[in-house]
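Section 5.1 Outputs to date
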Amino acid sequence: MQTTAEAIESGFPENALAMLLTALFWGFFEGFNYVVIFDKIGERYPSKNRLWDWGAFVCAVMCILIHGAVGVTPGAVAEMLCTLFLIYGMLIVRKATGNAWGCVLIFVLYWNAL
């Protein structure tokens, strides 16, 4: 369900509240889901290398496919690479620190462009 257009078209207090709620809920659950998927794949296919993880790679590719950042134009390739590095890096940092809140904050503050 797309609520962004309706939220932007509404008046000031309503649009700000609607966008804030959308970003918080969407960002929390998307960031949390990537961490859960990353952990499950990492348990099934553990990696001994500090900078390589199958779970992070699968999540990064999955994010590219889910968000439709697939294309052959230079802009689309740049967007795919940025998404790959962002998601992969986010999950590798989570692996190193054990803290998943950074993943949630990336999706709340950066991905939803607040």
